[in-house]
Amino acid sequence: MKKRTIPDLSKKLAAPLNAIASPQRIAILLAIGTGEACVCHLETALGWRQAYISQHLMALRKADILQDRREGRYIYYRLKNASYLELILDSATLSGLSSESVSAVINTQIYPACECPHCAPALISVESLKAA
Ligand SMILES: [Zn+2]
Questions:
Q1: What is the tally of structural domains in the chain?
Q2: Which residues, in sequence order, are CB contacts of 20 under 8 Å at separation 6+?
Q3: pLDDT tens-digit profile of 75-93?
């Protein structure tokens, strides 16, 4: 195999970094975290319009960072590779934040009005509590 040159390698290495290098895309990756989320979860979690989120979701999917799964009228997004979250946590340290403060916001909140699989189990458990 031909030995790759530094410029060759660097071009390849820059691709995943470039693909996530915007505050909006990092926010989406944090909101999805290790689980999966629909657009309405991201709308609730980030407070942005659906069209704006969809535009970034499309770019992240095109860059092969996200994969989607359709269930009925919902499309759920998940990270293809959790290494992107590690990369973001490394960036936390580099930017002077503690990695704990960033990992604390990774897909932890549950939104009662949201029907994504992250939030829906909470709704189900509330309902089953009422029934009990
Ligand atoms: Zn949700």
A1: 1
A2: 26, 29, 60, 63, 65, 84, 87, 88
A3: 999 999 999 999 999 999 9
